[in-house]
Amino acid sequence: MHHGTAPLQVDYDGPEAESIFSRSQSRWQAALRSANAINQLPENGFDLERILFRTPSLPKTIPSDATSIEGYSAWTNRNPSCHLRKAGKPRKFVLRRTYPITCSLSPSPNFSVWEDTPNNGIALLVLGWAYILTADLAERQNLTMEYRWPQDNPSDDQPTVLRLGYALPRERAWWKAIVTRGMGWSITGAPGDMKVSPWAVEVEDLGLDIAGGVGTSQRPPTAREAACYLARLCRVFSLGRQCSAALAAALTFPLQASYATRASAKIELPRLSLTQLSRSDKRQEDGPPAEYLHLGFYMSLSICPGIFGPLLWSIFWEPDVPCHCAGAWVLPIATTLKPIIEDNNLELLVRVLSFTPVAPLWLGLALCGPRGIMKSVMRSVTTLAAYPHTRPDIDSAAWTGIAQSFLHLHSSGPYLQVDGTVSRADVWRLRHDCYDKYDAVHFEYTPLHGWPPFGKMQEQDVELEIRSHLSCSPDWAYSHWTWLPAKATGVELSTNTTCPTRPPPEQDGIDGGESKRCEFPTEDVRRVSEEATREVFWWACSQVEKGFGTLVPRLVGYNGPLGRAQSPLSTEPEAIERVAKWLQTRSQWVVPARPTT
Fold first, then answer.
1. Residue 178 domain-assigned?
2. Residue 15 belongs to what H/E stretch?
3. How far is 282 from 142, CA to CA, in rounded Å?
């Protein structure tokens, strides 16, 4: 604990940072070497089920007029000596949105050749899964699907004709609606202003047509029937693992849409190539793909960008790296990924990320092309730029078993040590757990990044609101999830609470091997680490310790919500003066350089 008034010295580029930089560099260079040595993704890159862990299924029954539902997590404290209790905060899951995803074929060669098969049906399968997800949602709401045949919307060029000789007219009609230009299908009578499902798509010219007349009176299939059609296409054209990869891509649609709030998000799918039939092209009954069994669980995970996005970004965080060394950890990641992303080599990108626990989701994101969400990757790892989809989320961690922040990890034993100190990370945990004991509301929310604050505090420097809890250590365990209709209280929707539990996914081991030693980028490491440090200490700005004014200005006076006259847009002289004083404190945020010895 620093009790004086001299500027606080933070060691952003000392031996600890250099060691962390070396470890990160070794890991990510090994990942790149491994990626360059293989032509196909390992099996774990397609294993979507292992990500589910304890994800709840979407409710089996949802009111027909609901455009959103809410849910909350329940927690138990496994430490009998600690009497703290924790209640999950209700969060909204949007069932309708304003714009569909706009889908076109990619001009790049990414994923145009798929492993060892001559056929590439990824684009068709992604669009098929989008329909299946939407139809399943419609059935949960007791709604139906309808086709929206365009009156006159021909292809720009002569389309390739796909002949599905094994299919009956109803099956061919479905595939024709899937590939038709525009919106070929939708939920019938979807209520409200937000009229499309989270997985709705508007197709640009795919240059593909389905052979054979089908008429416009065919009834759209149920979700299960459509899944069987999709499985049959996979069998006939020997598409293999493309089915799972396509589902992963469709699951990213709500996240993609959240990044383009005022327009339709645009994705680019791999170019189609369906030329070689397998020998088993005769008509036979096919069951749905294996992934269909857990569709409700995938829907829950997909439908909330605030859960799905942090899960993707968890791969850039490391639990034992403190905030003042964050730059040392993320910059080797940026060095590895920058040339890959700049070259739009998304196939290499997913091979590099194949050792991570969420590799299947990164494959799904990459299949949708370099636009949108993919553009935010480099900014987040080079400058720690924060987006709504990158902020660590406790529900996301609980559902999947993949931690994204030090707040998601349990500190064993009592927080208070025998020498009368307590780690700042544990104090931050208690502030978040006991947010309702403070006048300010910001402790209810997590910091923007998952890096923990460094160092320890003296017991007497911890505020009275939480000091009595220092002698214990709450051990939170996720119990279950409860769904609520939006704006309703105390009504639980019927739900299969959790999927069949498998161990949470772990990071696959990669051989560190011989790494190319890079010069330690002192200034870049300092810049990023300063940002991480300022941010996590700013989160605790209402409880700044002595000596920490060099990191973050202390909030003094009234910490409640601003009144109308005190709103951020106020032009009153008093408001302008407060802003000017705050801006002066910004100069204190520059941490002095580490003294040389």
1. yes
2. helix 15-37
3. 35
Does residue 472 form part of some domain?
Answer: no
End-to-end C-alpha distance for the chain, whole angstroms: 22
Residues 150 and 182: beta-carbon distance below 8 Å: yes
Please tell me the distance from the alpha carbon of residue 426 to that of residue 444, in angstroms, as a whole number.
16
**Cross-strand partners of 71:** 91, 483
How many structural domains does the chain have? Answer: 1
Which pLDDT tens digit goes with each residue over 535-566? 999 999 888 776 665 566 544 433 333 333 33
Q: Specify the higher pLDDT residue, 263 or 408.
A: 408
Closest CA to 398 of 388, 408, 390: 408
Decide if 337 contacts 233 (C-beta within 8 A).
Answer: no
Q: What is the pLDDT of residue 509?
A: 58
Amino acid identity of residue 317, one-letter, is W
d(C-alpha 425, C-alpha 452), whole Å: 6
Beta strands across the sheet bearing 476-485: 91-94, 68-77, 476-485
Residues 6+ apart with CB under 8 A from 54: 398, 399, 400, 401, 478, 498, 499, 501
Position 485 scores a pLDDT of 74
Residue from 542, 454, 394 nearest 91 by CA: 394
Residue 128 lies in a domain: yes
DSSP string, 502-543: -PPP-PPP-----PPP----HHHHHHHHHHHHHHHHHTTGGG
Bin 327: left if φ > 0, else alpha if -120 < ψ < 50, else beta: alpha
Smallest Cα–Cα separation from 198: which of 286, 305, 291? Answer: 305
108 touches 344 (CB < 8 A): yes
User: Distance of alpha carbon 383 from its chain centroid, rounded?
Assistant: 19
- What pLDDT shows up at residue 502? 59
Mean pLDDT, the chain, rounded, equals: 85
* 285 within 8 A of 76, measured Cβ to Cβ: no
Residue 33: inside a domain, yes or no?
no
pTM exceeding 0.85: yes
What's the pLDDT at 587?
34
Containing structural domain, residue 212:
101-303
* Spatial CB neighbours of 133, under 8 Å, sequence gap ≥ 6: 197, 198, 199, 223, 250, 251, 295, 298, 299, 302
Q: Find the range with the poorest average confidence among 76-85, 286-295, 536-545.
A: 536-545
- H helical segments located in 273-325: 295-303, 305-313
From 325-334, 398-407, 420-429, 515-524, the region with the lowest mean pLDDT: 515-524
Report the range of poorest mean pLDDT among 108-122, 426-440, 538-552. Answer: 538-552
